[in-house]
Design a protein that fits this description.
By secondary structure, this protein is of the alpha/beta class. About 35% of the residues lie in helices and about 20% in strands.
Length: about 180
Amino acid sequence: MRNEKLFLKSLNRISAEEFKAADKLPIVIVLDNIRSMNNVGSVFRTSDAFRIEKILLCGITPTPPHREIHKTALGATETVSWQHKPSTLEAIEELKASGYKVFSIEQTKNSIMLDEFSLEGIDKIAIVMGNEVDGVDQEVINNSFGVIEIPQYGTKHSLNVSIATGIIIWDIFSKIKRNF
């Protein structure tokens, strides 16, 4: 058996209209003052791949339409629902009021390692991803249900925010998929 590469036409991807009508993974991604338009575009593209419910672009996080976001999003800004919120704290308070469990992705004293994180008792989840330099704002952490940390074993103390978002989405997707 040969592993023959598949091309776009043979992947049978759904259309943008079908995507918008399809069921979504009950995850909201909250971008807390992200500076890089490329990172924002990458988060859109990953969110499209896993049918994430929505992205909240908070504070100084750039919003579509913009050429630099589109360069990495490759059209995902047209499929994934998004909103801009002036304040991350305001955004997470609204999410909590709507029944979401909000988790910040950060390194803290009492964080839960991602490989030990369970979705038991969680129907809707919001994930806060922090600024490229400062991470998630401490006040946002204080108002989160909990903090999840991605285990790392190298010499660097952090990951690029778009890479970290992809890891988190994949892990939650895998855990939700197991429960269906």
